[in-house]
Amino acid sequence: MQKLGKTYILDNPVIVLSAVGVVGKKEGEGPLAQDFDVVFEDTTIGQDSYELAESAMLKQTIQLAISKSGVQEQDIDFILAGDLLDQCTGSCFAVMDFGIPFLGMYGACSTMALTMCNASLLLTAGADLCVVGASSHFASSERQFRFPLEYGGQRTPTAQWTVTGAGSMVLKNSGNADHSDESGAVKISAVHIGTITDLGITDANNMGAAMAPAAARTVSEVLHDTNTTPDDYDLILTGDLGFTGTQLLYELLEREYDINIASRHKDCGLMIYDLEGQDVNSGGSGCGCSASVLCSHIIKNMKNGSLKKVLFVATGALMSPTSTKQGQTIPGIAHAVILEG
What we know:
33% of the residues lie in helices and 25% in strands. It has 9 helices and 14 strands.
């Protein structure tokens, strides 16, 4: 493994054996509906609470990813997963019946990239198979971070809609692989652990502004470390800045780093919903936003050759109900993964 600045180039790229993205009813009414593996019409998923529903959703996503990969559960070395609920309880209850060593991870909306980065490093260090995943649920997130749905509070134009969704991948160490199964595979060739960036944003209804500086920092560092330009990628994918955060990202990159990514960039928070038709204000957010979009729409387009090289930069607002109530700022983080078809 080669270290270039803060970016790690993997000697043996990590193989994405399978990827599964599932969503709730509202997300299933959006523009990416046909790409998701499952759309749950009942957002309680037959459970007694929204929190249990989120766990059930992530559990099914992981089960589908394992089944789709063709590997056996007992052969998996680690599960890495996270969510927005207190102490990652959504993930804990989702994976406890698998009997597989578990690493719970919290990176807010950046969690999918965070689990992918860490799993890639574990696989490079000698592990054979890892499962990664992330989830969020609109109702459980609103109850924890804002107001119960019954409150009926008004949302500001900069607010984002937490996605009910989950994504999961089975990742394989190509150094220990039977290379006969690699034809057409999507691979992780490099990872970048982000650095906390805080420009003093305190508005919990403007997470795009809190996360954009971290996204700009990570994009610029990856491009610098790898000696690449935006044109070297078919897609630079962020998740999830929404409309407000995306505009700020463009401004920060051009002003601070003289980088223009507009022609190569898309944001998961803008892709998953129809902003005009679905009343989601500035777009989507939540761990499940980039996880579900990446594991369905993006991976499918990489497998069919429409996308060959993708820089995936997942962004997170590292706030908690406690820090918000105490008036603290919202630190941002952005982790990056380079995927190649």
